[in-house]
From TrEMBL:
One GO term (biological process): NAD+ metabolic process
Binding sites annotated in the UniProt record for NAD(+): D72, G73, N145, E146, R172, D174, T185, A186, Y187, S188, L189, S190, A209
Main location (coarse class): cytoplasm
Enzyme's top EC category: transferase
Protein name, entry field: NAD kinase
UniProt KW Protease keyword: no
Entry coiled-coil feature ranges: none
Cofactor(s) annotated in UniProt: a divalent metal cation
Gene Ontology CC annotation, any one: cytoplasm
Length: 292
């Protein structure tokens, strides 16, 4: 690895010294480096055109690690840029909870030392692929976290769900989502889904505010094909792939399965999923782990 591709979004509220710190860290890293043009416009100094990029190409991605600077929303946008190029992504957290972007921004300079020394591992993470003959899905029909159906009006949404052609149930309520293991700590967690180790080969189907309180999340193998048939008294409802939403008409059908290719995350070897989980969820802070 000999190249850093920095991706971030305008509007993070960074001060001029903070912006300068990012550039100084890149310049001192010893790597060849590039910055996406929209973010570069917010920087405190002008960068040479040769340091800027608009989209990722095979040439740019070769031998590179993408550094996502921001929160998990920024990381999901970085995934859309990097997907398909076998380029690992590392998240520097400038957001809040940060399960994807889990490296503290204060440690950004030390990240380059770890990368230079090869003290990191690359983890493949499952992506969802979503198809529909009723809805035109954007040019990136993939999701790292989840695909969801959710109401936009007061009327309840009815979603028939089939797993490998066999009916599971009809979810009545605010909606339903299908989550990857990576996404189990995102929207799925907030609706009561289980936390899943990201290396597990499974999906989670979870109802969103179900009308029938016996409805519970279901874990299925990631080899399954899931079909969702959407009905609602309202003429339209909504579907989302990660943090992108679009309107759909009642009667739309979707097929969700494991994407052919994974996305790759760079993980510093001293930060495990369980470390991140324990710290972000603040487990053990009540003192019981220490015998008190």
């Amino acid at each position: 690895m000999n190249k850093i591709i920095l991706f971030s979004r305008p509007g993070l509220g960074l001060t001029a010294p903070e912006l300068n710190d990012i550039l100084d860290a890149l310049a001192a890293s010893g790597f060849d480096w590039y910055v996406n043009r929209p973010f570069a416009r917010t920087l405190a100094r002008e960068l040479p055109a040769a340091r800027l990029y608009d989209t990722v190409s095979s040439e740019l991605a070769e031998g590179a690690v993408m550094l996502s600077y921001g929160g998990d929303g920024t990381f999901l946008e970085a995934v859309r840029l990097a997907y398909g190029y076998d380029m690992p992504i590392l998240g520097i957290n400038y957001g809040h909870l940060g399960f994807l972007a889990c490296t503290p921004r204060e440690e950004m300079a030390s990240v380059f030392d770890e990368l230079r020394a090869g003290r990191y591992e690359v983890q493949p993470r499952t992506m969802l692929h979503v198809e529909s003959q009723d809805v035109r899905i954007a040019e990136h029909p993939y999701a790292l976290n989840e695909f969801s159906i959710h109401r936009t009006e007061i009327n309840m949404t009815y979603t028939d769900v089939f797993v490998d052609g066999r009916k599971l149930t009809t979810y009545r309520g605010d909606g339903v989502l299908i989550s990857t293991p990576t996404g189990s700590t995102a929207y799925s967690l907030s609706v009561g889904g289980p936390i899943v180790d990201p290396m597990c080969g499974c999906f989670v189907i979870a109802p969103i505010a179900p009308h029938n309180l016996t409805m519970r999340p279901v874990v299925i193998p990631d080899t399954a094909r899931v079909t969702l048939c959407v009905n609602s008294r309202a003429p339209y409802t909504a579907a989302s792939l990660d943090n992108r939403s679009f309107q759909i008409a009642a009667g739309a059908t979707f097929t969700v399965c494991k994407a052919e290719k994974p996305v790759f995350l760079a993980n510093l070897q001293n930060i495990s999923f369980y470390d991140t989980l324990r710290n972000k969820m603040m487990w053990g802070l009540d003192g019981w782990e220490n015998g008190r």
